């Protein structure tokens, strides 16, 4: 049975999500093996989660370095108190900051940025954060349900509201889409919202390339 335009309902969705997590992710794409759930213990400093430094580690260590050292702090945390949503508020910024110091301890006098007091506020101060919109030839693309949309100029929490797209500074939000779905061209075949943004992005980039060559000569 195919779901209607309103989906399958909250309760069935939650049941299906729990089943997917339990039967597929927990011992599949999740980092734990079939015999233990120890990798979900973020207080065990000897856990493979913190000690596996191989390039192909399953814990996204390279990305964690950027979030902990630069420090982007680009973490998926619980919704603000004024809203409802998933994940639960137990997953807050401090939950991840604590892991940064375990995953990247001081070595030979060198400290990870987080240990030196560097925070996302430093990044925002350097880049302009939500308000860095005086740009040249830059396109913003976000999915409506992308958990990272709130970090972009399309954030609903941005003072004054999401940045209003202009001809020179396009900002696209793909309806009902999640993270980076516009990067896979085939998604445009099955989702008209994705295709519309893909086409608009390609069209704009072609215009800019033509302008570049015109001004170059």
Automatic annotation (TrEMBL):
Record key words, sorted: Glycoprotein, Hydrolase, Protease, Signal
Gene Ontology biological process terms, A to Z: proteolysis
Any one GO molecular function term: dipeptidyl-peptidase activity
Coiled-coil annotated residue ranges, if any: none
Domain of life: Eukaryota
InterPro entries: AB_hydrolase_fold, Peptidase_S28
PANTHER family: PROTEASE S28 PRO-X CARBOXYPEPTIDASE-RELATED, SERINE PEPTIDASE
Family per similarity comment: Belongs to the peptidase S28 family.
Protein name: Uncharacterized protein
Species the sequence originates in: Claviceps pusilla
């Amino acid at each position: 049975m195919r779901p209607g335009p309103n989906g399958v309902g909250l309760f069935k969705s939650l049941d299906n999500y729990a089943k997917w997590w339990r039967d597929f992710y927990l011992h599949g794409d999740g980092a734990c093996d079939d015999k233990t759930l120890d990798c979900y213990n973020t207080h065990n400093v000897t856990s493979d989660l913190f000690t596996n430094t191989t390039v192909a580690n399953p814990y996204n260590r390279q990305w964690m370095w950027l979030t902990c050292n630069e420090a982007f702090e680009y973490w998926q945390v619980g919704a603000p108190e004024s809203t409802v949503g998933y994940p639960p508020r137990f997953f807050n910024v401090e939950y991840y900051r604590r892991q940064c110091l375990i995953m990247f301890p001081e070595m030979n006098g060198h400290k990870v940025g987080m240990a030196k007091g560097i925070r996302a506020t430093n990044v925002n101060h350097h880049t302009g954060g939500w308000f860095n919109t005086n740009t040249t030839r830059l396109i913003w693309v976000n999915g409506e349900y992308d958990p990272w949309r709130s970090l972009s100029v399309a954030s609903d929490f941005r003072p004054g509201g999401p940045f209003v797209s202009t001809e020179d500074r396009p900002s696209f939000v793909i309806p009902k889409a999640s993270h980076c779905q516009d990067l896979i061209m085939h998604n445009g075949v099955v989702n008209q919202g994705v295709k519309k943004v893909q086409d608009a992005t390609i069209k704009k980039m072609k215009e800019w390339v033509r302008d570049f060559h015109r001004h170059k000569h």
